[in-house]
Sequence to fold (293 residues):
Amino acid sequence: MQLKPVTIVDSIKPEVFRKEFYRPGTPIVIKDLSKQWPAYNKWNWDYFKSLVGDQRVPLYNNVKSDAYTPINKADDYKTFGEYIDMISKGPAGWRIFLFNIFDHAPQLIEDFTWPEHLMKGFVKKYPMLFTGGASSITHMHFDIDLSHILHTQFAGRKRVLMFPFKEQYKLYRKPFEVLSLADFSHYYEKNGTPDYEKFPALKLAEGFDFIMEPGDTLFMPAGYWHHMEYLDSGFAMSLRAMQPSLAGKLKGVWNLFGMRSIDTMMKKTAPRWWYENKKRQIFAKAKKELAEV
Fold:
């Protein structure tokens, strides 16, 4: 993989952000955006536990999905309080994603400000909290609705690997899915993955590698591939904004209601054939990328 650090700034003028990052679709980390929010000093594990500790939440482990894995199927359930207790004791490869804590504790909405000076189109009904224990992994994927994301890390550090959407065939994208067939777990370790012998086109993929610290806000442009590993137990919030163009919105709608429906149906009716057929397409497209070098 051909990796470089992401641009990091303390603050940025809205016109500069829109011209140099938002419009061209280039990621950036802004360090001070969240530090004016009450949430920056107010949000912590104990506070969340007092608000939603009794809520039952879905948990996800580090195992990558296969031919038989239903979309977003949880691997376990606990109360939010039990989960916090578990990940506070040390490394625990369990995470929560797409948990709308704000449905259960709407007062949290008052603790941050929508950054509309940077961009418009925020989907204000769905701010999302993401939490993970140290060593938990969010495997390589892109967000299915193709929204722009402002992802703010509040507690703990996360290592982030990102690629623009156009690198999809070098990343061995599964057809009709938002996932990569390759496993990037611990990609930054000397003897870790990815497996270049099995996935040689990965060597050509150009992307970003960096660590998010508490208080950092990542602008992740629509369609960006991302793989995240929790170096510490922590939590983050994502604010989603729809693309301004009609074409961008329609692509997101197709992914949600067309592409995903076809994949779900085929996984139920002919999972092994569907999986093997996908693999043939994946490696054929990666081979084409290699041939063009």
